[in-house]
What does this fold into?
Amino acid sequence: PWCQALTCAPSCLACAPLPLRSCSPRSLGMATQQPVPLLTVSDAPPKHAESTTARVDAKPAEPVLGPRGQLAGISSPSPVPFGASPAPLQRQHDLYDSQNPLRIVHSHWASVKRMAIDDHIRMKLKRELTINMDEACVELPNAENLTSVKSLFNRHLHCTLGKDIKVATEHDFYLAFAYTVRDFEMERWKVTQDTYYAQDPKRIYYMSMEFYIGRSLCNTMINLQIHRVCSDALYEMGLKIEEIEEEEADAALGNGGLGRLAACFMDSMATMSLPAYGYGLRYEYGIFAQRIHNGAQEELPEDWLALGDPWEIARPEFTVSVHFYGETRWENGQVVWDGTQRVLALPYDSPVPGYRTTTVNTLRLWSAKSSKNFDLSYFNHGDYIQAVLDRNLAENITRVLYPNDNVTTGKELRLKQ
It folds into this structure.
Protein backbone atom coordinates (compact mmCIF):
# COMPACT_ATOMS: atom_id res chain seq x y z
CA PRO A 1 0.00 0.00 0.00
CA TRP A 2 1.02 3.60 -0.52
CA CYS A 3 1.24 4.26 3.22
CA GLN A 4 4.10 1.77 3.60
CA ALA A 5 6.28 4.33 1.86
CA LEU A 6 5.59 7.08 4.36
CA THR A 7 5.88 7.66 8.06
CA CYS A 8 2.60 8.26 9.85
CA ALA A 9 1.87 11.93 10.37
CA PRO A 10 0.63 13.12 13.80
CA SER A 11 -2.83 11.91 12.83
CA CYS A 12 -1.48 8.35 12.95
CA LEU A 13 0.52 8.80 16.14
CA ALA A 14 -1.37 6.06 17.96
CA CYS A 15 -0.45 3.41 15.40
CA ALA A 16 3.26 4.29 15.20
CA PRO A 17 4.49 1.14 16.96
CA LEU A 18 2.13 -1.08 14.95
CA PRO A 19 2.23 -2.19 11.32
CA LEU A 20 0.89 0.63 9.17
CA ARG A 21 -2.02 -1.33 7.77
CA SER A 22 -4.77 0.93 9.07
CA CYS A 23 -3.50 4.23 7.66
CA SER A 24 -5.21 6.10 4.87
CA PRO A 25 -4.51 9.26 2.86
CA ARG A 26 -6.98 11.13 5.07
CA SER A 27 -4.86 10.47 8.13
CA LEU A 28 -2.13 12.87 7.00
CA GLY A 29 -2.09 16.13 8.96
CA MET A 30 0.44 18.86 9.54
CA ALA A 31 1.59 20.86 12.52
CA THR A 32 1.44 24.62 12.39
CA GLN A 33 5.12 25.21 13.13
CA GLN A 34 7.95 25.80 10.71
CA PRO A 35 8.96 22.40 9.34
CA VAL A 36 12.31 20.84 10.06
CA PRO A 37 12.62 18.40 7.14
CA LEU A 38 14.46 15.17 7.75
CA LEU A 39 15.07 14.78 4.04
CA THR A 40 15.10 17.31 1.24
CA VAL A 41 12.62 16.16 -1.34
CA SER A 42 11.25 18.04 -4.31
CA ASP A 43 7.69 19.29 -3.99
CA ALA A 44 6.95 18.21 -7.53
CA PRO A 45 4.88 15.02 -7.81
CA PRO A 46 6.82 11.92 -8.88
CA LYS A 47 6.50 11.11 -12.54
CA HIS A 48 6.39 7.37 -12.09
CA ALA A 49 6.65 4.71 -9.40
CA GLU A 50 10.34 4.08 -9.97
CA SER A 51 11.29 7.63 -9.10
CA THR A 52 9.17 7.44 -5.97
CA THR A 53 10.88 4.25 -4.87
CA ALA A 54 14.27 5.81 -5.43
CA ARG A 55 13.27 8.78 -3.36
CA VAL A 56 12.03 6.53 -0.58
CA ASP A 57 15.22 4.50 -0.52
CA ALA A 58 17.35 7.61 -0.17
CA LYS A 59 19.20 7.86 3.11
CA PRO A 60 17.65 10.59 5.29
CA ALA A 61 19.82 13.20 6.88
CA GLU A 62 20.25 12.83 10.61
CA PRO A 63 18.07 15.40 12.40
CA VAL A 64 19.49 17.54 15.16
CA LEU A 65 17.57 16.38 18.21
CA GLY A 66 17.85 17.39 21.81
CA PRO A 67 17.30 15.21 24.87
CA ARG A 68 14.50 12.64 24.49
CA GLY A 69 14.11 13.45 20.82
CA GLN A 70 12.99 17.08 21.17
CA LEU A 71 12.48 19.00 17.93
CA ALA A 72 13.55 22.55 17.24
CA GLY A 73 11.38 25.17 15.66
CA ILE A 74 8.32 24.99 17.93
CA SER A 75 6.46 28.26 17.63
CA SER A 76 4.61 30.03 20.41
CA PRO A 77 1.38 28.31 21.38
CA SER A 78 -1.88 29.77 20.18
CA PRO A 79 -3.90 31.77 22.73
CA VAL A 80 -6.11 28.92 23.92
CA PRO A 81 -7.28 29.21 27.54
CA PHE A 82 -5.66 26.74 29.87
CA GLY A 83 -8.07 24.11 31.16
CA ALA A 84 -10.23 24.05 28.05
CA SER A 85 -11.82 20.80 27.00
CA PRO A 86 -9.73 18.65 24.65
CA ALA A 87 -10.30 19.52 21.02
CA PRO A 88 -12.41 17.13 18.97
CA LEU A 89 -10.72 14.64 16.70
CA GLN A 90 -10.45 16.85 13.64
CA ARG A 91 -7.63 16.84 11.18
CA GLN A 92 -6.31 19.41 8.76
CA HIS A 93 -6.07 18.13 5.20
CA ASP A 94 -4.96 21.32 3.47
CA LEU A 95 -1.56 19.80 2.57
CA TYR A 96 -2.98 16.52 1.34
CA ASP A 97 -2.79 16.09 -2.41
CA SER A 98 -5.77 13.97 -3.45
CA GLN A 99 -4.38 13.59 -6.97
CA ASN A 100 -1.09 12.24 -5.74
CA PRO A 101 -1.30 10.25 -2.48
CA LEU A 102 2.42 9.42 -2.74
CA ARG A 103 3.39 13.05 -2.32
CA ILE A 104 6.04 13.49 0.36
CA VAL A 105 5.41 16.41 2.69
CA HIS A 106 8.12 18.57 4.25
CA SER A 107 7.60 18.35 8.01
CA HIS A 108 9.41 17.41 11.19
CA TRP A 109 6.39 15.20 11.88
CA ALA A 110 6.89 13.00 8.83
CA SER A 111 10.05 11.37 7.50
CA VAL A 112 10.63 9.02 4.60
CA LYS A 113 10.01 5.34 5.36
CA ARG A 114 11.53 2.49 3.45
CA MET A 115 9.32 -0.09 1.81
CA ALA A 116 10.60 -2.83 4.14
CA ILE A 117 10.38 -1.66 7.77
CA ASP A 118 11.98 -3.63 10.54
CA ASP A 119 11.29 -3.21 14.23
CA HIS A 120 14.37 -1.11 14.89
CA ILE A 121 13.47 1.54 12.32
CA ARG A 122 9.83 1.54 13.38
CA MET A 123 10.75 2.28 17.00
CA LYS A 124 13.17 4.98 15.87
CA LEU A 125 10.48 6.69 13.81
CA LYS A 126 8.07 6.41 16.74
CA ARG A 127 10.52 8.36 18.89
CA GLU A 128 10.79 11.02 16.18
CA LEU A 129 7.00 11.45 16.17
CA THR A 130 6.82 11.94 19.94
CA ILE A 131 5.95 15.41 21.15
CA ASN A 132 8.40 17.00 23.56
CA MET A 133 7.83 20.29 25.33
CA ASP A 134 11.44 21.13 26.21
CA GLU A 135 11.73 23.85 23.55
CA ALA A 136 8.29 25.28 24.28
CA CYS A 137 8.48 25.49 28.06
CA VAL A 138 9.01 28.82 29.71
CA GLU A 139 11.22 29.25 32.73
CA LEU A 140 9.95 27.24 35.68
CA PRO A 141 10.34 27.96 39.40
CA ASN A 142 13.86 27.32 40.60
CA ALA A 143 13.58 24.03 42.44
CA GLU A 144 17.30 23.96 43.16
CA ASN A 145 16.92 26.93 45.48
CA LEU A 146 15.77 25.84 48.92
CA THR A 147 14.60 29.37 49.62
CA SER A 148 12.04 29.23 46.80
CA VAL A 149 10.56 25.97 48.11
CA LYS A 150 10.29 27.32 51.65
CA SER A 151 8.82 30.59 50.37
CA LEU A 152 6.12 28.77 48.38
CA PHE A 153 5.35 26.55 51.35
CA ASN A 154 4.88 29.50 53.72
CA ARG A 155 2.80 31.40 51.17
CA HIS A 156 0.37 28.50 50.74
CA LEU A 157 0.20 27.87 54.47
CA HIS A 158 -0.62 31.51 55.24
CA CYS A 159 -2.52 32.66 52.15
CA THR A 160 -4.13 29.52 50.68
CA LEU A 161 -5.02 27.78 53.94
CA GLY A 162 -5.12 30.82 56.23
CA LYS A 163 -3.13 29.05 58.95
CA ASP A 164 -0.21 30.06 61.11
CA ILE A 165 2.55 27.58 61.82
CA LYS A 166 1.63 27.68 65.53
CA VAL A 167 -1.91 26.36 64.93
CA ALA A 168 -1.41 24.35 61.73
CA THR A 169 -1.99 20.60 61.88
CA GLU A 170 -0.05 17.87 60.15
CA HIS A 171 -2.69 17.79 57.40
CA ASP A 172 -2.31 21.54 56.93
CA PHE A 173 1.40 21.01 56.41
CA TYR A 174 0.60 18.33 53.84
CA LEU A 175 -1.82 20.57 51.93
CA ALA A 176 0.63 23.48 51.88
CA PHE A 177 3.42 21.21 50.69
CA ALA A 178 1.20 19.56 48.05
CA TYR A 179 0.27 22.98 46.64
CA THR A 180 3.95 23.87 46.62
CA VAL A 181 4.87 20.79 44.60
CA ARG A 182 1.91 21.36 42.30
CA ASP A 183 3.20 24.85 41.50
CA PHE A 184 6.27 23.29 39.92
CA GLU A 185 4.16 21.34 37.45
CA MET A 186 1.39 23.87 36.75
CA GLU A 187 3.40 25.85 34.19
CA ARG A 188 4.45 22.65 32.45
CA TRP A 189 0.82 21.54 32.44
CA LYS A 190 -0.27 24.79 30.81
CA VAL A 191 2.48 24.76 28.18
CA THR A 192 1.77 21.09 27.39
CA GLN A 193 -1.91 21.73 26.69
CA ASP A 194 -1.22 24.93 24.74
CA THR A 195 1.32 23.06 22.61
CA TYR A 196 -1.23 20.34 21.87
CA TYR A 197 -3.65 22.96 20.63
CA ALA A 198 -0.97 24.71 18.57
CA GLN A 199 0.38 21.55 16.92
CA ASP A 200 -2.97 19.73 16.73
CA PRO A 201 -1.60 16.18 16.90
CA LYS A 202 -3.79 13.12 17.06
CA ARG A 203 -4.81 12.56 20.67
CA ILE A 204 -5.23 9.38 22.68
CA TYR A 205 -8.31 9.12 24.93
CA TYR A 206 -8.03 6.37 27.53
CA MET A 207 -11.39 5.51 29.11
CA SER A 208 -11.55 3.25 32.14
CA MET A 209 -13.93 2.47 35.00
CA GLU A 210 -10.87 2.39 37.29
CA PHE A 211 -7.83 4.59 37.81
CA TYR A 212 -5.88 3.27 40.78
CA ILE A 213 -3.86 6.45 41.16
CA GLY A 214 -2.78 6.01 44.74
CA ARG A 215 -0.79 8.82 46.33
CA SER A 216 0.36 11.60 44.01
CA LEU A 217 2.77 13.62 46.17
CA CYS A 218 5.79 11.32 46.12
CA ASN A 219 5.18 10.28 42.51
CA THR A 220 5.07 13.91 41.37
CA MET A 221 8.29 14.85 43.16
CA ILE A 222 10.12 11.86 41.68
CA ASN A 223 8.87 12.57 38.16
CA LEU A 224 9.82 16.24 38.42
CA GLN A 225 13.17 15.34 40.03
CA ILE A 226 12.65 17.66 43.01
CA HIS A 227 12.31 15.07 45.78
CA ARG A 228 15.69 15.74 47.35
CA VAL A 229 15.47 19.53 47.34
CA CYS A 230 11.95 19.39 48.78
CA SER A 231 13.08 16.99 51.49
CA ASP A 232 15.97 19.30 52.42
CA ALA A 233 13.66 22.33 52.51
CA LEU A 234 11.24 20.59 54.87
CA TYR A 235 14.12 19.44 57.08
CA GLU A 236 15.34 23.02 57.45
CA MET A 237 11.81 24.01 58.54
CA GLY A 238 11.74 21.25 61.15
CA LEU A 239 9.42 18.89 59.22
CA LYS A 240 9.96 15.33 57.98
CA ILE A 241 8.94 14.50 54.45
CA GLU A 242 7.99 10.94 55.44
CA GLU A 243 5.40 12.23 57.91
CA ILE A 244 4.04 14.68 55.34
CA GLU A 245 3.64 11.93 52.74
CA GLU A 246 1.71 9.75 55.18
CA GLU A 247 -0.96 12.45 55.49
CA GLU A 248 -2.09 11.98 51.89
CA ALA A 249 -5.25 9.96 51.34
CA ASP A 250 -4.96 7.01 48.99
CA ALA A 251 -7.00 7.65 45.83
CA ALA A 252 -8.09 4.00 45.61
CA LEU A 253 -10.29 4.44 42.56
CA GLY A 254 -9.62 0.90 41.41
CA ASN A 255 -9.97 -2.71 42.43
CA GLY A 256 -6.50 -3.97 41.55
CA GLY A 257 -4.86 -4.87 38.27
CA LEU A 258 -7.21 -3.03 35.92
CA GLY A 259 -6.99 0.22 37.86
CA ARG A 260 -3.21 0.07 38.25
CA LEU A 261 -2.83 -0.73 34.55
CA ALA A 262 -4.83 2.38 33.64
CA ALA A 263 -2.79 4.57 36.00
CA CYS A 264 0.49 3.15 34.68
CA PHE A 265 -0.63 3.75 31.10
CA MET A 266 -1.24 7.41 31.94
CA ASP A 267 2.22 7.74 33.54
CA SER A 268 3.88 5.98 30.61
CA MET A 269 2.17 8.09 27.96
CA ALA A 270 3.20 11.28 29.77
CA THR A 271 6.79 10.00 30.05
CA MET A 272 6.80 9.24 26.30
CA SER A 273 5.32 12.71 25.63
CA LEU A 274 2.27 11.26 23.90
CA PRO A 275 -0.73 13.63 23.76
CA ALA A 276 -3.14 11.61 25.90
CA TYR A 277 -6.14 12.18 28.13
CA GLY A 278 -7.65 9.83 30.71
CA TYR A 279 -11.39 9.66 31.38
CA GLY A 280 -12.96 7.99 34.40
CA LEU A 281 -15.35 8.44 37.32
CA ARG A 282 -14.62 10.43 40.46
CA TYR A 283 -15.95 8.04 43.07
CA GLU A 284 -16.78 9.65 46.39
CA TYR A 285 -15.71 6.48 48.20
CA GLY A 286 -12.82 4.30 47.12
CA ILE A 287 -12.64 0.54 47.11
CA PHE A 288 -13.10 0.24 50.93
CA ALA A 289 -11.32 0.78 54.22
CA GLN A 290 -10.37 -2.40 56.05
CA ARG A 291 -10.73 -3.08 59.75
CA ILE A 292 -10.08 -6.34 61.61
CA HIS A 293 -12.63 -7.02 64.33
CA ASN A 294 -12.65 -10.27 66.32
CA GLY A 295 -10.33 -11.86 63.79
CA ALA A 296 -12.57 -11.05 60.82
CA GLN A 297 -12.36 -8.36 58.16
CA GLU A 298 -14.90 -5.56 58.13
CA GLU A 299 -15.34 -3.35 55.07
CA LEU A 300 -15.89 0.34 55.82
CA PRO A 301 -16.44 3.23 53.41
CA GLU A 302 -13.24 5.03 52.49
CA ASP A 303 -14.02 8.74 52.32
CA TRP A 304 -10.82 9.82 50.59
CA LEU A 305 -12.29 13.23 49.70
CA ALA A 306 -13.29 14.13 53.27
CA LEU A 307 -10.42 16.65 53.63
CA GLY A 308 -10.22 17.63 49.98
CA ASP A 309 -7.84 16.73 47.17
CA PRO A 310 -5.18 19.37 46.39
CA TRP A 311 -4.35 17.80 43.01
CA GLU A 312 -7.73 18.16 41.32
CA ILE A 313 -9.21 21.27 39.71
CA ALA A 314 -12.96 21.51 39.16
CA ARG A 315 -14.11 22.55 35.69
CA PRO A 316 -17.81 23.46 36.17
CA GLU A 317 -17.81 25.40 32.90
CA PHE A 318 -17.54 22.09 31.03
CA THR A 319 -20.44 20.35 32.77
CA VAL A 320 -22.26 17.86 30.52
CA SER A 321 -25.91 16.73 30.72
CA VAL A 322 -26.60 12.97 30.68
CA HIS A 323 -30.16 11.65 30.31
CA PHE A 324 -31.68 8.41 31.63
CA TYR A 325 -35.06 6.70 31.31
CA GLY A 326 -37.89 8.42 29.43
CA GLU A 327 -39.71 7.38 26.27
CA THR A 328 -39.44 8.15 22.59
CA ARG A 329 -42.17 9.28 20.20
CA TRP A 330 -42.50 10.56 16.66
CA GLU A 331 -43.09 14.26 16.12
CA ASN A 332 -42.89 16.01 12.75
CA GLY A 333 -40.92 13.15 11.27
CA GLN A 334 -38.35 13.14 14.08
CA VAL A 335 -37.82 11.07 17.21
CA VAL A 336 -38.38 13.01 20.43
CA TRP A 337 -37.02 11.76 23.77
CA ASP A 338 -39.27 12.84 26.65
CA GLY A 339 -39.60 12.18 30.36
CA THR A 340 -35.89 11.71 31.02
CA GLN A 341 -33.98 11.98 34.27
CA ARG A 342 -31.29 14.60 33.72
CA VAL A 343 -27.98 14.17 35.51
CA LEU A 344 -25.08 16.61 35.33
CA ALA A 345 -21.52 15.33 34.88
CA LEU A 346 -19.02 17.71 36.49
CA PRO A 347 -15.37 17.22 35.39
CA TYR A 348 -12.35 17.41 37.66
CA ASP A 349 -8.89 17.63 36.06
CA SER A 350 -5.71 16.30 37.64
CA PRO A 351 -2.17 16.66 36.22
CA VAL A 352 -0.21 13.56 35.20
CA PRO A 353 3.51 14.46 34.97
CA GLY A 354 5.93 12.36 32.97
CA TYR A 355 9.18 11.04 34.40
CA ARG A 356 12.15 13.30 33.59
CA THR A 357 10.25 15.16 30.91
CA THR A 358 8.36 18.45 30.76
CA THR A 359 5.13 16.85 29.53
CA VAL A 360 2.15 16.94 31.90
CA ASN A 361 -1.01 15.25 30.61
CA THR A 362 -4.54 15.41 32.01
CA LEU A 363 -6.70 12.90 33.85
CA ARG A 364 -10.35 13.98 33.83
CA LEU A 365 -12.69 12.33 36.34
CA TRP A 366 -16.45 12.95 36.20
CA SER A 367 -18.69 13.45 39.22
CA ALA A 368 -22.48 13.03 39.01
CA LYS A 369 -24.57 15.97 40.19
CA SER A 370 -28.32 16.50 40.15
CA SER A 371 -29.85 19.14 37.92
CA LYS A 372 -32.33 19.78 40.75
CA ASN A 373 -30.38 19.76 43.99
CA PHE A 374 -33.11 21.02 46.30
CA ASP A 375 -36.90 21.17 46.07
CA LEU A 376 -38.07 24.04 48.27
CA SER A 377 -41.77 23.19 47.98
CA TYR A 378 -41.28 19.74 49.53
CA PHE A 379 -39.04 21.22 52.22
CA ASN A 380 -41.62 23.86 53.18
CA HIS A 381 -44.24 21.10 53.58
CA GLY A 382 -41.97 19.19 55.93
CA ASP A 383 -40.99 16.45 53.47
CA TYR A 384 -37.26 16.87 53.97
CA ILE A 385 -36.32 13.52 52.45
CA GLN A 386 -38.22 14.15 49.22
CA ALA A 387 -36.66 17.63 49.01
CA VAL A 388 -33.20 16.16 48.42
CA LEU A 389 -34.25 12.86 46.82
CA ASP A 390 -33.30 13.85 43.28
CA ARG A 391 -29.84 14.92 44.41
CA ASN A 392 -29.20 11.66 46.23
CA LEU A 393 -30.37 9.54 43.30
CA ALA A 394 -28.11 11.41 40.90
CA GLU A 395 -25.02 11.43 43.11
CA ASN A 396 -25.35 7.71 43.79
CA ILE A 397 -23.95 7.11 40.30
CA THR A 398 -20.45 8.15 41.40
CA ARG A 399 -20.86 7.34 45.07
CA VAL A 400 -19.14 3.95 45.23
CA LEU A 401 -16.78 1.99 43.02
CA TYR A 402 -18.47 -1.24 41.87
CA PRO A 403 -21.74 -1.27 43.83
CA ASN A 404 -23.15 -4.67 44.75
CA ASP A 405 -25.02 -6.03 41.73
CA ASN A 406 -26.77 -8.92 43.47
CA VAL A 407 -29.97 -6.89 43.40
CA THR A 408 -31.73 -5.23 40.48
CA THR A 409 -31.04 -1.69 41.69
CA GLY A 410 -27.33 -2.48 41.91
CA LYS A 411 -27.28 -3.75 38.32
CA GLU A 412 -29.11 -0.62 37.21
CA LEU A 413 -26.60 1.60 39.03
CA ARG A 414 -23.66 -0.15 37.37
CA LEU A 415 -25.29 0.35 33.99
CA LYS A 416 -25.63 4.06 34.73
CA GLN A 417 -21.95 4.23 35.62
User: Anything to note?
Assistant: The chain is about 30% helix and 15% strand. The longest helix spans residues 170-199. The radius of gyration is 26 Å.
